[in-house]
């Protein structure tokens, strides 16, 4: 029995000495799972960056010359019938864009709110169109004529219009989500664009007066119409041109994007932006921008 106790005591001493010589393994400190934990990128802070991309421009010229025709036909019986004539349609063009952005993020857990200002320069984003329309206006409201006279105004309008968007600034509010190294976001805000807009119209107006007479011959009633020769109306036959350079147009913007953290504060972004400007000289411009960018968060 004393021999068994002696053997057990020897083995216990050897085991204790061997355990003292073993390295301090992480599992013994409860750190085995540390290497498996998910790292998180902090998006809070100020940032700056540059971007570039592609712009699709849709310019609506349908009402561009209305202001000019209203001036030509002012105080005349032709102003009301021609007030909403559409001479031209929507025209599309494409170009490249370059710009920069600066902003600030505030993060609460996974939610991110931000405020961002952007500048965009457009490379030759211009479009030009023309159109014509003719119509015979018969006895327009307010026209004074004899009861047996029919006034026929033959009106022909020919117009041209052009618009060039030079650059734009925006102030956008952002809402994002912390996806680790990715941050998808949506934004909406105000936009101010600088553009050159021009328009011109030429009107040609002729008046033909037809006279209708009714006579009774042998108990029968005969009606005859004498067609007059067209006569030019100089007061409404003229040309008007208007141009505005570096005109400012206000509007709104909205879109979606995603940012990816490349390393430390360096990040890349991809975004789509929709911009709608208020009309300048009855010319409305809409932009669709696709961009890629590179920025740094401090």
UniProtKB/TrEMBL annotation:
A matching Pfam family: OMP_b-brl
GO cellular component, one term: cell outer membrane
Main localization, broad class: membrane
Domain named Outer membrane protein beta-barrel: residues: 8-298
Signal peptide: 1-19
UniProt family annotation: Belongs to the Omp25/RopB family.
This protein's name: Bll7405 protein
Source species taxonomy: Bacteria, Pseudomonadati, Pseudomonadota, Alphaproteobacteria, Hyphomicrobiales
């Amino acid at each position: 029995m004393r021999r068994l106790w002696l053997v057990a005591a020897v083995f216990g001493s050897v085991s204790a000495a061997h355990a003292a010589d073993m390295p301090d393994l992480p599992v013994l400190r409860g750190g085995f799972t540390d290497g498996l934990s998910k790292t998180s990128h902090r998006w809070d802070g100020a940032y700056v960056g540059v971007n570039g991309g592609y712009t699709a421009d849709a310019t609506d010229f349908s009402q561009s010359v209305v202001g000019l025709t209203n001036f030509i036909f002012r105080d005349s019986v032709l102003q009301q019938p021609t007030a909403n004539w559409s001479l031209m349609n929507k025209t599309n063009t494409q170009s490249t864009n370059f710009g920069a952005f600066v902003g600030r993020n505030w993060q609460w857990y996974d939610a991110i709110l931000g405020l961002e200002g952007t500048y965009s320069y457009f490379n030759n984003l211009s479009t030009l169109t023309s159109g014509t329309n003719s119509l015979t206006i018969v006895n327009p409201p307010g026209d004074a004529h004899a009861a047996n006279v029919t006034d026929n105004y033959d009106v022909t309008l020919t117009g041209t219009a052009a618009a060039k968007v030079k650059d734009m600034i925006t102030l956008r509010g952002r809402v994002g989500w912390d996806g680790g190294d990715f941050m998808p976001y949506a934004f909406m805000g105000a936009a101010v664009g600088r553009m050159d807009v021009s328009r011109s119209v030429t009107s040609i107006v002729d008046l033909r007066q037809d006279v209708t007479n009714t006579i009774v011959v042998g108990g029968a009633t005969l009606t005859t119409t004498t067609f007059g020769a067209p006569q030019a109306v100089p007061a409404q036959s003229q040309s008007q041109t208007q141009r505005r350079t570096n005109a400012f147009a206000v509007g709104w913007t909205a879109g979606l994007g995603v940012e990816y953290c490349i390393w430390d504060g360096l990040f890349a972004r991809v975004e789509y932006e929709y911009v709608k400007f208020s009309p300048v000289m009855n010319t409305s411009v809409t932009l669709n921008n696709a961009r890629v960018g590179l920025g740094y968060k401090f």
